[in-house]
Amino acid sequence: MFLYETFPKGFLWGVGTGALQVEGGWRKDGKGASVWDQFIHTALRGAESTELSSDSYTLLDKDLSALDFLGVTFYQFSISWSRLFPTGVVATPNEKGLQYYNSLIDSLVYRNIDPVVTLYHWDLPWTLQEKYGGWKNESIIDIFNDYATFCFQTFGDRVKYWITIHNPYLVAWHGYGTGIHAPGEKGKITTVYSVGHNLIKAHAKVWHNYRTHFQPHQKGLMSIVLGSHWIEPNNSEDPLDISKSQRSMERVLGWFANPIYGDGDYPDELKKEISFLPTFTEDEKNYIKGTADFFAFSFGPNNFKPPNTLPKMGQNLSLNLREVLNWIKLEYNSPRILIAENGWFTDSHVKTDDTTAVYMMKNFVNKVLQESIYKAIKYDNIDVFGYTAWSLLDGFEWQHAYNIRRGLFYVDFKSEKKERIPKSSAFYYKQIIRENDESHPL
User: Fold this and answer.
1) Do residues 421 and 350 lie in contact, with contact meaning Cβ atoms separated by under 8 Å?
2) How far apart are CA 103 and CA 97, in angstroms?
3) 14 three-state secondary structure
4) Which PANTHER family does this UniProt record tie to the protein (predicted)?
5) Residue 275: which region, alpha, beta or left (left: phi > 0; alpha: psi -120 to 50)?
6) 97, 101, 107, 109: CA torsion to nearest 10
7) Single pTM value for the model
8) How is domain 12-435 classified at the CATH fold level?
9) pLDDT in tens, 264-311
10) Tens digits of per-residue pLDDT, 77-121?
């Protein structure tokens, strides 16, 4: 079932969550509302609120027990911006929120589990949306940098791995284009790309801030999670088919990856196709280029669904991880790569016997991840150093609310104790980690 010694010594096994999905307590202890809290009560009527989630804010010990059960090397989680600063503007922090994140980080360090901390996983403080228009407004860049600075000052002595933004493609497209994510704006296509532009500049500013003021003594690393599909030509010998596939990748992954990992600018084909694409000055290109210490990549079934506005161009979506890793290597000068998000959905009625998810995980890990990474490392000289299963717990699944589940641990949202019950997939992932236990800290 599982090939031993396939993964290299020191390969890292982790698990992830997003704050809004699992914390609950959206108004508790002085927390401010986020764009998602507002969206839930206006656009997702009938979805109820995140109060029904796994309530990680008050049940931290149960989350830690779940992590202990799995035996992971790292835990990738996000900080709720409005739990620290209710209006989003940095002032005196909300003491209870600060206490929660300090307790979480301290508990992970005590267990020798590396905290991989995401600063922004989609839950922009509502006040910033209401007052400034959210990510449409360049003013948010400096406000985000102030928030990041506080996090570095407060947690950076224990956090060595930072993610600035989780999947900016989805923030821009679904938050300000299709409207299926908060803040739910069905904006003009120009708005989508101006939001993306601001997200890139925000990431770069925070990276430089950390690099200059914190990295010399905190010794941490920073990246941004970028998600993508992989698309293959119908005919691998047809230059037109190959060109169409390349253009599709550039419009998704290249949109954000090329400025950060490439030459500091958008891909040439994207600039040719989209006349209204914002432009970077030469100084901005130099400033943005190289602003990541590793490539954090979100990939897998259901992790990424291109919107209807993005045609497949007659090509074929594929789960060939080795090929997309080679594409990243060739396009972006062989970065170290972390598979930063990978998981499967199950129906809401499925409890602990998530056989479909186990089947998918086995297929992906055995046939895709295992083979791809083994061959990528051995034959292609690609440095893949870790894998993040998504997610630790069942929780609030964005526009799907509670209609689907994605956790390795089952949670009865309506129960009082909200026990974390390991699913079949949790036992399987635990086995994978145990059989490849040569992990070392990042």
Assistant:
1) no
2) 10
3) strand
4) BETA-KLOTHO (PTHR10353:SF68), GLYCOSYL HYDROLASE (PTHR10353)
5) alpha
6) -160
7) 0.92
8) TIM Barrel (3.20.20)
9) 999 998 999 999 999 999 999 999 999 999 999 998 654 434 444 444
10) 999 999 999 999 999 999 999 999 999 999 999 999 999 999 999
